[in-house]
Specification:
Number of helices: 12
Shape: globular
Largest sheet: 6 strands, mixed
Helix content: 40-55%
Distance between the termini: 14 Å
Order of helices and strands: EEEHEHHEHEEEHHHEHEHHHEH
Radius of gyration: 19 Å
Amino acid sequence: MRLGVLDVGSNTVHFLVVDAHPGAAPLPAYSHKIELRLAELLDADGAIGELGVERLVEMVASSMRVAEDKGVEEVLPFATSAVREAVNGEEVLKRVQRETGVELQVLSGGDEARLTFLAARRWYGWSAGRLLLLDIGGGSLEIACGLDQQPDAAVSLPLGAGRLTAGWLPGDPPEAEDVRKLRRHVRAEIARTVAEVVRLGAPDRFVGTSKTFKQLARITGAAREADGPYLPRKLTRGSLSAWVPRLAAMTAGQRALLPGVSEGRARQLLAGALVADGAMDLFGVDELDICPWALREGLILRRLDQMSGEQ
């Protein structure tokens, strides 16, 4: 069947159309997205402003038109931390439903971590052993670790690249003291979770997912996304650590000229690098694999598993 996944994330609103059936890998058929950056559009009170709400409603409505045009049989609509944590999140959800007919499912941080872990587990298989997953979004950092399809530990921290950039790095380029303060904050938050995450054993394989890790891997020498999902891509802590001070010295415009870095995400790449560097250091990760599947694929796989159980 043809499924659609509507992902209202902290950076991007993405409607992905896939051809899928139980027992097979979902195949992307069409992509429709905008960089809305909801995590950076919160006002001083923590609410999503009118412009952000209007653009979100427009994008959801246009996604439903795409779904009809592309023959989508079922849509899986969900939202993550930006809507979940906005003080007017409930009002935003009601308005989206009233004006588009779409009821967005708000995922908890733990749900995000578990579903992304499911995607990584299916991608690498059982032979990968115990996985440690790191996923840096616009609003949060998800960490999960385990040996099975469901992780033993699943943690979500408010360390998304967009959120941290808006709250901690106002300069362009940022002030050195602001970078130091953010580095200390990030590492203190992650350090609290280390014992809980690895309590049942040391990981056999380390995995990073989503756009921030893909961009960091690309600037440190990994293959382009255009070269296909099956080409192995890795990120080493040594190469990342060497890039952090270089990114800190750059303006957003200069970062946007780096390979694989989009203009819309260039400003938050430094915050993402500080989170990635801190997580890799504190969890003892010298090298991690970049997984092409993440939260959207996890939702699709869960729905396909449900369909198998219904048959």
